[in-house]
Structures are given as structure tokens and as C-alpha cells.
Design goal:
Layout (H helix, E strand, L loop, with lengths): L15 E3 L13 H10 L2 E7 L6 H10 L4 E4 L13 H11 L6 E10 L8 H21 L3 E6 L2 H11 L4 E4 L5 H9 L2 E5 L9 H9 L5 E3 L21 H12 L3 H15 L1 H13 L1
Parallel strand pairs: 1-2, 2-3, 3-4, 4-5, 5-6, 6-7, 7-8
Helix pairs in contact: 3-4, 4-5, 8-9, 9-10
Length: 286
């Protein structure tokens, strides 16, 4: 793809941050440039692109450097752990060392645990996930980076390891745990991601959390191409849907839409400090 023009100054206008978007996915292969331009037309000014395995470390980094305002994360997704090799942790460590001064490297992720998918429920699969998760937390602590967490039927175990290892916060992506679990993540300095699932009226627990959590705990995401909002009816999700997703949060919390943007952007930058630096430096350069 061709690099896009630099960011223009914000001038106080409302803009949006997609804190979790798999823009490198094959679903975007045919029209990725158009997808990015459509997001920018909808004032989505920053996008975080997480890796899922060592195979796409280079892809997410190159993509982030081609998109003004974007950042990337490097990590091994729990779903990728059955096919990952132990030495992939060394490869991740080497990549983090190589790019530790790259401002666009904003987190270690996507990492975590998935105890929902059938193939990941066995004792051996869980143990392997937990080993990769623990080792990646240690790398995040070593490099002083926040983490992007995959939380699926695994919140309590994730929290246990977070307390033991200790990292500098991050984001619980697509959060769908209990209020008590949410409070525990927030107490550890995490923000929680809300996206397309929140737009379904039947998603009562997610909508309760979006309404009740402290304002400082909320960030927005799409997880595109996945977790499409209600109006897309299982079609491909994309980052240009974020402003409309934000309208659901505005409705649930009875906030004006510009307050949703201001608060969630501030939270995203607090969770991922390098992302704030990216915006500042690229806006100034433009």
C-alpha cells in the first residue's frame, strides 16, 4: 500500500481511536487502502494493530508505519499457541529489543488466555496458553510496555498472573466478564475495550458494564474484521464503524458524543502512552 499523507492538526474537532483492529487480516487484502481512507473520513485518527503470531510481526509494523497516527503491538495470541514453538518467545524478545525505540510500538499483544474454544480447553492446551501468557507478561514488564489482553472465559486466571508478574497496565480487549472481574482489572490500572458486541440489545452484561464502570476505564475498539456491530449482520467489520459504535456508548451513559470521544481518547492515551506521543509527533510534523 502507499503511505498516506501526514495528520492534519486536530483543531479541537472530534476524532476517534480504534484501540484494537486487525488491519493486516486477509479479509482486508483486496481493499485495505480504501478501508483505511474510509476510517479517516469518519475521523478515526488512530488505530492500534496487534500481532497474533511471529508470522505477522513485520506486517503489523509496516502497516502501522504506513498509516498516520497508527500504532502496533507484538505478541502471540492464545489461539496461536497450539502451533507456536517455544522459541517464538525468543523471537518476540528479539523483536521487542530491536524495536524498543520505535514510538509506534505501543504494547505487547495480543496476548492472553482463551478457555472458550473447544480445542483450547484441554489441560495440555491450557497449560501451553498459560506458559506463553506468563512469558509474554515478563517481556512486557522487562520492556516497560503495556499489554493488550485477550479475555475469554479466563478473567480470573489472567488476573492471577497479572498480580504475580506486574505490568504497567494496558487494555482488556473485548471485555465480557463480571462486574467484580472488571473492577479487579481496573484496580490494576487497566482500561476495558468495548466495541460491536455492545451494540446488541441482548448483550445485557456488556451494556451494564459500559454503563456502570468508571468513565476513566472505557476505551473503544472494533476488533475488525471480527465482532461486527448489530447493523452489519455478521458482515465484515471495519474501523469506519467506530463512530457509530460510540453512539451506543453515548446512549448508554447519557453522554454527548463529543464527551464520549474526549473521554475514551484520553483513556486510550493513558493506557498506551506511546500512542499519545505518536499523535503529537505526527500532528506536529504535518
Amino acid at each position: 500500500m502507499h503511505p498516506l499523507p501526514p495528520l492534519a492538526a486536530a483543531n479541537g474537532a472530534v476524532y476517534w481511536i480504534d484501540t484494537h483492529c486487525h488491519l493486516d487480516a486477509s479479509e482486508f487484502e483486496a481493499d485495505r487502502q480504501r478501508v483505511i481512507e474510509s476510517a479517516q473520513a469518519q475521523a478515526v485518527r488512530q488505530i492500534v494493530i496487534p500481532a497474533v503470531s511471529v508470522a505477522n510481526f513485520d506486517a503489523v509494523r509496516e502497516l502501522a508505519h504506513a498509516i498516520p497516527g497508527a500504532g502496533y503491538a507484538l505478541g502471540i495470541h492464545p489461539i496461536a499457541t497450539p502451533g507456536a514453538q517455544d522459541k517464538d518467545i525468543e523471537r518476540l524478545a528479539e523483536a521487542l529489543e530491536r524495536y524498543c525505540d520505535d514510538q509506534k510500538l505501543v504494547a505487547v499483544g495480543e496476548i492472553g488466555l482463551d478457555f472458550f474454544l473447544q480445542g483450547l480447553k484441554t489441560e495440555s492446551a491450557r497449560n501451553r496458553q498459560e506458559w506463553f501468557y506468563r512469558e509474554q507478561l515478563r517481556l512486557a514488564k522487562h520492556f516497560g510496555l503495556p499489554v493488550l489482553l485477550h479475555v475469554r472465559r479466563s478473567a480470573d486466571r489472567l488476573l492471577k498472573e497479572l498480580r504475580q508478574v506486574g505490568v504497567c497496565g494496558g487494555i482488556g480487549h473485548a471485555f465480557n466478564g463480571s462486574q467484580q472481574q472488571a473492577d479487579a482489572f481496573v484496580a490494576l490500572g487497566f482500561r476495558l475495550g468495548f466495541g460491536g458486541a455492545m451494540t446488541f440489545e441482548r448483550a445485557l452484561q456488556i451494556r451494564r458494564l459500559a454503563t456502570a464502570l468508571p468513565a476513566t476505564a472505557l476505551v473503544l475498539e472494533t476488533d475488525a474484521p471480527d465482532i461486527a456491530p448489530a447493523w452489519l449482520n455478521r458482515q465484515r467489520n471495519a474501523p469506519d464503524q467506530l463512530p457509530r459504535i460510540a453512539q451506543t456508548l453515548a446512549f448508554l451513559r447519557n453522554w454527548p458524543i463529543d464527551e464520549v470521544a474526549r473521554q475514551t481518547n484520553a483513556n486510550a492515551h493513558a493506557a498506551l502512552p506511546r500512542l499519545a506521543a505518536v499523535l503529537e509527533s505526527e500532528t506536529s510534523a504535518g
